[in-house]
Amino acid sequence: MKIKLHDTAMLGLLTAVALVLSYIEHLIPLSTAVPGIKLGLSNTVVLYALFLAGKKQAVLLVLLKVFISGFAFSGVSAMLYSFCGGILSILCMLFFKRFKGVSVIGVSVVGAAAHNIGQCLVALGFIAHRAILLYLPFLLVSAVITGVLTGITAEYIFKHLSRRNNQ
Amino acid sequence: MPKLTKYDALIVVCVLLLAAACFVFSTFIFSDSGKGEATVEIYIDNSLYAEYPLSSEQFITLKLDDSQKCEIEITGGGVRMYSSSCPDKLCERSGLLTVEKAATSDLASWIVCLPNSVSIHLCTEGKK
Question: What's the domain range around A149?
C-alpha cells in the first residue's frame, strides 16, 4: 500500500513537471518556423519515468500528458496528433530500452523520431497526400538533434537525482 | 559527460537513413506524378459537365440558368475562371490553377463558384 501511494504521488509530480515543460515549449517559437518541430523538453520527464520509475508509470505519464495538455493548451484535434505520436514514441522507447548497449541518448532519439513518425501517420490519415512524406525527413533530422540534446539533459538529471537519493 | 554508445550512434545513423530514404522516395513520386497528362473537369450542380486535357487551349463559355454565365480559360499552363457573373468573384480571384498548385493538396486542385454551382477540378494523373 505504501509503495502504491508513493507511485501515485510520483506520477502526479512527473505529470506536473511534464505539463509545465510542454507549456514552456509552447512559449518558445520554434514551431512557427517549421510546424511540428519541437524541443521535446517534456520527453526528459518521460525518460526519467521510463528509466527510474518503471514502465507502467511511463505509459500512464504519456497518456496523462497527452490528455491534459490537449485539453489545456492545444485543442482536441491537436490532441489526436500528440496521442498517436506519444503512444508510438513510448512503445518504441520501451522496445529499445531492452537492449543493453543503448543508452538514454539512444532511447531519447528513438522516442523523438517515433513521435514525429506517429504524427505524420495521423496527418496522412487526415490529408492523405504524399507531401506529408516529403515533410517527414526534416522532422526526423530535427528529431535526431533534439533527441540527443534531451537525452544528454536526462542523463545529467539522472546523475544528480540518484546522488540525492543515495544521501 | 554522457557519451554516445556504439548502439546510440547506430540508432542515429538509422534514423538519418530513414529520413534520406523518405526524402528520395517522396521526391521520386512527386516527379512521377508531374509527368502524367492532367485533365480539367468542369462540374455543374455536382455532375460532370465536360472534361478537357490541360494541354488543349480552350475558352469555354457556360450559359447557366437565370442568364448567369461563367467563362473558363484553359491554357497549357493552367486553368482559371476568366469571368463569372456571381456577386463575390471568389472564383475569379483564385487565379490560375496550375499542376504544381493542384499537387499541394486536394483542396487546392479546385476552383469553385458557389453562387453558380460551377466547379473546376484539375485532375493530375495517378491521383483519383
Answer: 2-28+35-166
A16-61: pLDDT as tens digits: 999 998 888 878 776 666 666 778 888 899 999 998 888 888 999 9
| Tens-place pLDDT, residues B10-60 | 999 999 999 999 888 877 766 655 456 788 999 998 889 888 888 888 898
Is residue B2 within 8 angstroms of chain A, CB to CB? yes
Report domain extents, chain B: 1-35, 37-123
Cα B58–Cα B119–Cα B62 angle in degrees, nearest 5? 50
Q: Using the beta-carbon criterion (under 8 Å), do A101 and B11 form an inter-chain contact?
A: no
Task: Provide the number of CB pairs (under 8 Å) joining chain A to chain B.
Answer: 81
Would you say the ipTM is above 0.85? no
User: Comparing B27-41, B56-70, B114-128, which segment has the lowest mean pLDDT?
Assistant: B27-41
Q: How many alpha carbons lie under 13 Å from residue A81 in its C-beta half-sphere?
A: 16
Q: Do B30 and A134 touch (CB under 8 A)?
A: yes
Q: Name residue B52's beta-bridge partners.
A: B40
Asked if B105's CB is within 8 angstroms of A110's CB, the reply is no
Question: Nearest-CA neighbor of A65 among A96, A48, A52, A51?
Answer: A48
What span, in angstroms and rounded, lies between the C-alpha atoms of B98 and A32? 28
Spatial distance between the Cα atoms of B114 and A75, rounded to a whole number of angstroms:
31
Pairing of strands B78-84, B110-113: unpaired
Residues of A in contact with B7 (CB under 8 A): 99, 101-103, 106
For chain A, how many structural domains are there in total?
A: 1
CATH top-level class for B37-123? mainly beta
Q: Structure pTM?
A: 0.66
